[in-house]
Amino acid sequence: DGGITQSPKYLFRKEGQNVTLSCEQNLNHDAMYWYRQDPGQGLRLIYYSQIVNDFQKGDIAEGYSVSREKKESFPLTVTSAQKNPTAFYLCASSMLGGPAKNIQYFGAGTRLSVL
Amino acid sequence: DQQVKQNSPSLSVQEGRISILNCDYTNSMFDYFLWYKKYPAEGPTFLISISSIKDKNEDGRFTVFLNKSAKHLSLHIVPSQPGDSAVYFCAASAGNTGKLIFGQGTTLQVKP
């Protein structure tokens, strides 16, 4: 079964704590992305990576960090510097070339709340 | 600056009728457009897309129209079904960046 797996589904963060959201894909996609969705808003890009060991900031990267040590994995860390972390976080992946290169496929999301 | 806009937060239609969801964009460099469907607490699901070299793409009950001069695209669902009730996002990309810019979404309710 090919797809994107995000874990955990729900996550709670205490004040001053860093938390890490997991994203794994077995679609053999080169590119991976992290988005944040707030109520009534669209998806905003946090970070993306087109190749292992390389990643770029999106529109709202402040307070977040990522790593891309393996093609299949793109974990997102929400640091204590992110003052408003409560949101629905979505991970996606896509091919870099070919006719489907612009189509991103999404995981089921992680809902992060602050205690 | 919102480069992709969905100005209607919600839309309600009767089952069997046509649903028309609209999307406007400002960046003339966008060359590929997509529609996603999203249920609550789930990730978006790809629905249909269109390249800027076309003005129409059809897939079953779903048709996307692109008007480049007006920087406007629309998604038509015919006939609408209750299972189509969801939030619909339009998205756009430019060149080979792979990055997508999303609109705010439109919540579609199809009433039986």
Given the C-alpha coordinates, what overall shape of chain B results?
Answer: globular
Largest sheet of chain A: 7 strands, mixed
> Care to count the β-strands of chain A?
11
Helix content of chain B: under 10%
Unreliable segments of chain A (pLDDT under 50, ≥5 consecutive)? none
Textual characterization of the structure:
Chain A has strands at residues 4-7, 10-13, 19-25, 31-37, 43-51, 54-57, 64-66, 76-78, 87-94, 105-106, 110-114. Chain A has 115 residues and is mainly β. In chain A, strands 2, 4, 5, 6, 9, 10 and 11 form a seven-stranded mixed β-sheet that branches. Chain A has a four-stranded antiparallel β-sheet with strand order 1-3-8-7, with no helix packed on it. The mean pLDDT of chain A is 93. Chain B contains no helices and eleven strands. In chain B, a hairpin with a 7-residue loop joins strand 9 (86-93) and strand 10. At the A-B interface, strand 4, strand 5, strand 9 and strand 10 of A face strand 4 and strand 5 of B.
Short descriptors:
heterodimer; A: 115 residues; seven-stranded mixed sheet; four-stranded antiparallel sheet; 11 strands; globular; B: 112 residues; mainly beta; five-stranded antiparallel sheet; 0% helix
In brief, what are we looking at here?
The complex is a heterodimer of chains A (115) and B (112). With 115 residues, chain A is mainly β.
Please render the helix and strand layout as text.
The complex is a heterodimer of chains A (115) and B (112).
Chain A lengths: L3 E4 L2 E4 L5 E7 L5 E7 L5 E9 L2 E4 L6 E3 L9 E3 L8 E8 L10 E2 L3 E5 L1
Parallel strand pairs in A: 2-11
Antiparallel strand pairs in A: 1-3, 3-8, 4-5, 4-9, 5-6, 7-8, 9-10, 9-11
Chain B lengths: L3 E2 L4 E5 L4 E7 L6 E7 L6 E7 L4 E4 L2 E6 L4 E6 L8 E8 L7 E2 L3 E6 L1
Parallel strand pairs in B: 2-11
Antiparallel strand pairs in B: 1-3, 3-8, 4-5, 4-9, 6-7, 7-8, 9-10, 9-11
